[in-house]
Write a structure and sequence with these properties.
Strand content: 25-35%
Distance between the termini: 90 Å
Shape: elongated
CATH topology: Nuclear Transport Factor 2, Chain: A
Order of helices and strands: HHHHHEEEE
Number of helices: 5
CATH architecture: Roll
Largest sheet: 4 strands, antiparallel
Length: 218
Amino acid sequence: MNSPLIQLLVLAAIAVFLILRLKNVLGTREGFEKPPLPVQQAKRSGPTFEVIEGGPDLDITDHFDEGTSEAVALTKMKRIEPSFNVTEFLAGGRGAYEMIVMGFEQGELDEIKPFLSDDVYESFVDGIAAREDLGLTIEANFIGVREMTLENVTLDPDTNEAELTLRFVAELTQAVRNKEGEIVEGSITDAKKQKDTWVFARIMGSDDPNWFLVSTDG
């Protein structure tokens, strides 16, 4: 075998080795990858178009049609308090729902009291006292909010008090135990659906940023 052929075979072997090594290091990429940089388009000689401001507020129209009483109320709320955002309110409402539900189930009201109106707080105290008188305890685990809908919005023009009604559909496990620790209702493994319609209220433009739960209807 002549020398040039031997050199060619050696180079080919080295090339195969390097390809295999590189593949082992990089691996096979799957799933999400950073998209390639966009290719710059050629400059256009025609007219350019600008986005005209003053269109519909999607933060509102994602929930209510323009011109409805709810949309009008939300618009007025934003004028009074420009930092108010419906999307952010809903995110806070979702978190508040879980916190308040679990606070009631576990009989621990201290942390959730600042978010409850006086009437709701007293009703929670009475409910917890009633089950304690019967020697009942609740073991619950919150799984998650499956649905949440903003159903109604009102704004009092005299006091600037806003009320937003949220409809929740959640899943949780709940077991009621008697004095002996026996489960008399529910289950610690089988999840159940819980539906609630809650009303949160707040004076728009006030220094207190907290929304208060003022009504709880199942």
